[in-house]
Known about the structure:
The chain has helices at about 15-20, 20-30, 45-50, 70-85, 95-110, 135-150, 160-170, 215-230, 250-260, 270-275, 290-300, 330-340, 345-360, 365-375, 395-404; strands spanning about 5-10, 35-40, 55-60, 90-95, 110-115, 155-160, 180, 200-205, 235, 260-265, 280, 305, 320-325. It is α/β, with parallel strands linked by helices. About 45% of the residues are buried.
Amino acid sequence: MQIKTLAIITSQAFSLANFRGPLIRDLAAHGIRVYALAPDYCDKVRAAVQALGAEPVDISLSNTGMNPLRDLYDTWALARCLKRLRPDATFGYFIKPVIYGAFASHLAGVPRHFSMVEGRGYAFEGRAKTLGWRRKLIRHGVAALYRRALALTERTIFLNRDDMLFFQLSRMVTNDRVARIHGIGLDLDHFAPAAPQLTPLRFVMVSRMLKAKGVYEFVEAARLVKARVPEARFRLVGGADATSRSVPRRQLEAWHEEGVVEWVDRVHDVRDWLADASVYVLPSWYGEGVPRGNQEAMAMARPVITTDWVGCRDTVVHGHNGLLVPPRDVPALAEAMLSYVHAPELIVQHGRNGRLMAQNLYDVRQTNARIFSALGLVREPLLCADPVPPMPARHKATVRDISA
């Protein structure tokens, strides 16, 4: 069935313009009527979505938490909304829009539903054998919901191969209903390359200040490096969340006052902070999709130090455009930083290589073409060249262990 109207379902309105803007614009230019369904519109975001060519639609859908009665009501209300709009297809991203969007689309009789999994998230953090019974119960519950929802989904799009393999091994999705792209795409003209700052060397981490993003590891590695190279600078850029999973604001302020790192709260435009850096660092052990910060740093010709972990490893060829370190390994992270201190010429070389990789993998025009292919809007096959060699056996073992 040809798609003439498409309802995009999300649980965060700001992401429509920030992360889906070029896709919405391309869909509208393709002659498709786009409904943008989200629960938390403000006037600014609503105007931005309208300017992209979509029609904002308010829905009820919580972004976090598990309240079965609330989620059941939201699914029923979403089904009523879709029945009124009568789209030819729906496209959900983020966990609740993927799961409850599939159920609501089925209840509303929408002919086609597509999903995008941008990362595993909190439910699948950690290895199964180390979890308590509550976390295991949540994991099994979310997996069961995914399994039923994705059975109603025509195609599920993944950002990295680890996640795709994880969902396949866990039998949450069948092999003939998947597609993979590299990240959500960047406007490479917007994230233009800039000469790195080399005197003094400056390491920056741009992220939400979640513990699992590796914030504590970044700070402790900074201590080790500054003990040997006092002039090196370290900067954290990003806001703290009001959850137990976030580094407390008072801790970030204490580090800033101590001088071990400079902390900058939420910023509107990360380009200035990337331009003022030598090396980008993300020591994450979070359930990443493909970290956008890594992509932005590569586009601006910054080498990337990140973990040999889900999603992160997809962005770095070790020794080519950056360095990979084991997750939660502070000494290894510090040594990786010192590698650039001792050989600053690698910063320019690895940064240049990263920019070329970004052009090959993360150009939003190519990404949108892959999504169009996955949605069946074009006849060209889904092209997805790998930035790294085939997954080593140890990575597959890690994926199996997590899914156990």
